[in-house]
Amino acid sequence: MQRNHSAPQPSVSVSVKPNKPLTRKTSLLRYDTSTPPSESSFTGKTPSVLPSSSQRPNPERRVVSDPTGGSLVLKNSTGIASMLQKNQKRKREAIKLVPEDQQIFRGLDFFYLPADDKNPKRKMRITKAKEYGAKWTTELEDDVTHIVVDNSLTYEHIMKYLKETLKVQALPKRAIFVNEDYPIDCIAFRRILDAKQDKYAVKGAVTESEEKPASQRSPQAAQDEEDISRRTPPREDSASQARDVEGEEETQEISQNPSPARNFQREMGFNDPLAEMIEFVQTKKHLPLDDEENEERPSSRDSMQDPGDSDDSRERSPSPVRKPSKKKHRGPKGSFNQNNFSCMTGGTGETTSSNPNARTIEILQEMGDFYEQVKDQWRTRAYRMAIGTLKKTTNKIRTAEEAQELPKIGKRIADKIEEIVLTDGLRRLEFAKQDPTDRVLQKFLKIYGVGPSQGLRWAQQGHKTLEDLKANVNLTANQKIGIAHYDDFDTRIPREEVTALASSGDIDFLITKPSTTTTTPLLTFLDDLVRHLTSTGFLVAALAVPRGDSSSKWHGAC
DNA sequence: TTGACAGCGCATCTGG
DNA sequence: CCAGATGCGG
DNA sequence: GTCAA
């Protein structure tokens, strides 16, 4: 969508409407900022200085003089920080009869196999389950909801045992088989998990995936199942059923609507600002707005595949020296290697919906979006890459081990993937979104011109709202504009061409003219253009204006 | 355990 | 005033 | 966040 006229050098780009962090899953992939501060401060790392990184300060030791007096050392210790922190040690403390609202097993009836608590481990598990509201039944009654089988037992054992020892004719209607891990995991996640997961299947039982083809199974087993058969591993209703008992308040509504309180009207009312602009451009000069497309084709960049991992196009040119030479496109290396443009990721999203890991991707996206909002460049990138590889994966990833095999997916994300598969959610994500400190910070960070440094400072100074800021803080020109247009900047642009792919946070124009070798003449034109649009009332604010006559971009809002 | 993960333009701040 | 450092954005 | 040194 972005018109990249690959004209040699002289090019002036006009960026209208500074976008701001996206709000929802539709987010398109955009680049992050380089703001290491967030890294350390958010992770709560120790103030160890970064000696080498000459280019960046260590936020931890940044002493800020507070306008209102005193000075303080920036050090984030809660909120996002805590989340970003490596406090991943999940403690499974032993509680005695947890609070009512945490009794996830309430209403459930567990029948253990073996049906006693002689085994200390099993006894422990039973106790635990009871603490969480489960009822322990030693008779295979009709109200049994779960038959929890020791991992040491196999499906055949069970069947044999049930039929021969217990003389069971039929299993309780609602009962489903799970292995001993199931209750444990449920407790770990504080919620009823999907009992259909393969990992909870009783050893030797038919798993969901292999379920249908009965032909595949050993005739023996198939036979044994007989009467009890289809209710056994086929735990179709299990999850939902159990969930019902529990109440579905759990279902997370991680998504908050992006408040589409847009001002389309303006676009509507205005016949078409964009068209008008283009028209202006064309009349203004004989700029070949059309040719561009043609000349561009041939040099089309590399294919669009190779999203994720490739990244390591580390053929990196030795020195960061930027040659004024007329190199074509961007850098020699990866240049645009990332899937930062919707057009490169197949914005139509065919990939997403069909992918077996769609749901996982969706949630990881939210994590990525979150980190983008808090402007944690690196984590944002990390999630993006992980998502990239996940998108290329054709089989469904269910466990952490499985996930960690994949490139760009380490332990942390692997664990998250597993949790997502298990719980259809991510507690960290929900927590992150809830935390009050974070919310304030997030709010501030969405102001154009406010980054981690300033945002954190304000948040720690106790400011809570945009009004607070307007009243008690020295705002830069851009920040004022950022606040004034807070909602606008936070909203995406739905223009047709753009919508085709997704939606856009902004629109970029690249102005070129053949045969020009410097930007000077183009700047003149740019100036005219901006002046015109401003007078027309289309452009409302200038955020970054080119300086000198050597470059290049104008940032503003319309 | 630690540093890289792109580099750059513009705005603002800091300090001489 | 200016130069360098820092913050921010895409 | 992941990865490599």
TrEMBL record:
Segments for region (Disordered): 1-71, 204-266, 283-356
Species this chain originates from: Lachnellula cervina
Reactions that this protein is recorded to catalyse: DNA(n) + a 2'-deoxyribonucleoside 5'-triphosphate = DNA(n+1) + diphosphate
Biased composition regions of type Polar residues, renumbered to the chain: 1-16, 32-57, 253-262, 335-356
Biased amino acid composition, Basic and acidic residues: 228-238
Catalytic residues, chain numbering: K416 (nucleophile)
Location of the BRCT domain: 100-200
Database matches in SMART domains: POLXc
Domain of life: Eukaryota
Annotated family: Belongs to the DNA polymerase type-X family.
Pfam families linked: DNA_pol_B_palm, DNA_pol_lambd_f, HHH_8
Protein's job: DNA polymerase that functions in several pathways of DNA repair. Involved in base excision repair (BER) responsible for repair of lesions that give rise to abasic (AP) sites in DNA. Also contributes to DNA double-strand break repair by non-homologous end joining and homologous recombination. Has both template-dependent and template-independent (terminal transferase) DNA polymerase activities. Has also a 5'-deoxyribose-5-phosphate lyase (dRP lyase) activity.
Name assigned to this protein: DNA polymerase
The entry's keywords: DNA damage, DNA repair, DNA replication, DNA synthesis, DNA-directed DNA polymerase, Lyase, Metal-binding, Nucleotidyltransferase, Nucleus, Transferase
Subcellular location: Nucleus
Cofactor(s) needed by this chain: Mn(2+)
